[in-house]
Structures are given as structure tokens and as C-alpha cells.
Amino acid sequence: MEFPLDQGKAILSAKISISSARADFLATSCEVGPTPLEVRALIDTGASISIVDEEYLGALRIYPRGFCDVLSFHNEESTPRKFQNYDIDLEILGRQFKNLQVVGARLMSTHFQMLLGRDILVNFDYSFLNSKDTFQID
User: Is the pTM of this model over 0.85?
Assistant: First the structure.
């Protein structure tokens, strides 16, 4: 599928929700998790792991499950910083990714709420068509 670049950026619509494992746990006590959220996901080929804005993780009432060392995010330092990680389910381009580990961070962007890293992108074929200001992803 071919999409136009959005202000020079490759952005896709996605849906995030609590992880399937968490939903199954809630079901054992007859609880229902929060409604999944629509997000705009920026394709970031330089990110090894996907990142979700922590405001959206909070809205889903998802709690961190540990920490992840991340190098060069929000800074140009060569020393990794610890960020909390979370388990989510992700739906993008009709594909489901269950119990996915992501990093939570303040992204400080009004154009996107998620960075789609190589942990997800490895499942797709994609290319940027600069002459047409578009990108393809399948």
C-alpha cells in the first residue's frame, strides 16, 4: 500500500490496547479493560524498539513491567538511559501484534503518539519514494 508523506514523515494509523495477557487476567475477575486507542505511528527505522507516548499508556491504565536501557532518545548522549517498558497489543495495517514490549516516554509531538521501531518494521516490506513524496509498506 502506498501512503503520502505527512510533512515529510511516514506516519500510519494504528490501534493500541492492553496486552492480551492482561485482558485474559481481567476476564478471570469479570473485568473489562479500557477501549483501545487510535494513535498515529511514525515509522522510525533508527529505533530498535517501538515507543508509545506515556500519556496514552496512562489512558489505557497500563502499568510498567520493568525498565529498558535506551540509547540516544531525546538526547545525543552515548550513555543509555532507563525507560519503563510496557506490554501492549498493537493493530496496524490489518496485522495484530500481541503482548508486544514497548518503551513508554514523553514524545512531545502533536503529529504522532508512537514511534514504530524495527521490532515491528521487520514484519513489513517498506520503501520511501522521495520523487513522489510517498512511502510504501506491505
Answer: yes
